[in-house]
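Researcher: Can you fold this with pyridoxal-5'-phosphate in place?
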Amino acid sequence: MSTAFLSNRVLGIEPSPSIAANALVTELRAQGRDIINFTVGEPDFDTPEHILQAASAAMQRGDTHYTATTGTLALRKAISHKLERDNGLVYGLDEVVAGCGGKHIIYHALAATLNLGDEVIVHTPYWVSYPDIARLNDATPVIIPGDETNGFKLSPEALEKSVTPRSKWVILNTPNNPSGAVYKEDELLALAAVLRRHPHVLIMADEIYEQFVYGDAQHVSLTRLAPDLKDRTLIVNGASKGYAMTGWRLGFGAGPAWLITAIAKLLSQTTTCPSSVSQAAAVAAFAGDQTPIAGMREVYQQRRDRMMELLAPIKGLTFTPPDGAFYVFANVSALMGKTTESGESIQNDSELVAHLLKEYGLATVSGAAYGMSPYIRLSFASSMEVIEEGCRRLKEACQRLR
Ligand SMILES: Cc1ncc(COP(=O)(O)O)c(C=O)c1O
């Protein structure tokens, strides 16, 4: 009955599955269950001290008012500085915009550009929100199936085939959530060559995990390699992951001034500006001491290595080592069709996720949430003890499936 009041827009999407998975963990723990949480999509570190100090100083000096919609001058300068320092890219102050998280920027960028019937190209496994944000804005997500043998990366051939006259955006996410894939220079150059042939397509480069790359992997921005695409590329990034600042809700977009102006126009009618205190904190994050980031990266690398070591002997589960972000996207196809001790047959990754949670108190996210099955996403953004206990439970669960 109450759905009669709801818009088709809202009825046509699902709640974010990763947020739902995490909320379920909170609920089960509140009921007293012992849950190991491998669904975590955020750093478990506290925000570095110098960032807290900057926020505190901002509050004390009275920086508690509305700011310019695109962000304070200090923040836009800090973002511009960060892009030059970390990515070798030059963006003017009218080419950057701050928002309440990277997700907020993605939403506003799509809302500012999409019309009914437009297509948004997304490849699997994709970050859960891209297709629904496209749908919310009357567009059709065009989903390119991923290929693990290709390291889960979008190939130039698949991209070429998916472009139509209605294509408005292609979304590239490197380092990738959930696969951990990090595109190499030659792979980006090959995609750039395709995109060059289709000047009507905008490019969204979601680089929110850029600080977390492991081993020999290196993060490179597409527009660094293909500067001619800069006038139709929007870089999305923010403070959430790299600076352990998810709760501050501070992200940014960098792109051509016409697009930034359009996003700002929309933001002026929705959120006005991000929190002034979060903006002051983000100035310290982007322009201040970067050493805490290297420390966090080091710890993630150790956790990743340990998780891979513990997962490797588990029968029925295989994985491609993640080069970036903080997830292992494990292939569970060998477990499909197996039977649990209570006689239930596991037919898909969502049923496996439910079984792991119910019988072993291990929370994971199904590949289905990322458009690619049968997989499960395991986050290593938690302590070594949690990683070890979670992998122990996973091993036991897999052993007992017949
Ligand atoms: C790939 C990707 N992009 C964007 C975001 C949005 O992050 P935020 O809105 O916290 O900046 C996330 C968050 O999980 C993500 O995983």
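Model: Folded with pyridoxal-5'-phosphate in place. The chain is about 40% helix and 15% strand.
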